[in-house]
Amino acid sequence: MSVSTVLYAVATVLYYIGFPVIIIVRLLLAAVIFVAAPILHVAYYLLHGVLWPIRQLARFETLYIYFGVAALVGICTAAILHYSMTFVVRNLRIDGSGEEQGRTLSSYRAEKTEKQAEKIRQTLPKVGLKPIRLDTGLKEGYSDWLKQDKGFATKGLLSTTILEEEDSSEAGFG
Length: 174
Fold this sequence. Notes:
mainly alpha
């Protein structure tokens, strides 16, 4: 007796023993699929509805690629410019960190206001008049002026009217 004959006999015996088990498993599987068919059908449509936005986003795949590449190019270009300018500034020593700065606009204006106040103080007569302090707020600077009697009636429309002045810059505009 050869080995192939023995193997053939063993396979035949195992087939006839396993055949009823295979039939029973197939019948059980068919019953499970039959019972689970409505659940599987509902799950299919739920999955279809959940994946709908992803299918809609797939239409814009070309735009995603375009904007992604544009962002990548922009980031790379910005990085190259940043590092190259840092290199140039460092090697040419033009960063300006050690230099003293000149006058600022606010210091210039403060100096100009102080000069104007000094000029006004020198032109005012020293008899009985208070010089106006320009460095204080509007309330303090004009409080004395508001308290003075100007000869106008204290009540009425004339005392509250603000008269306009002609502007010389509008003379050429018609």
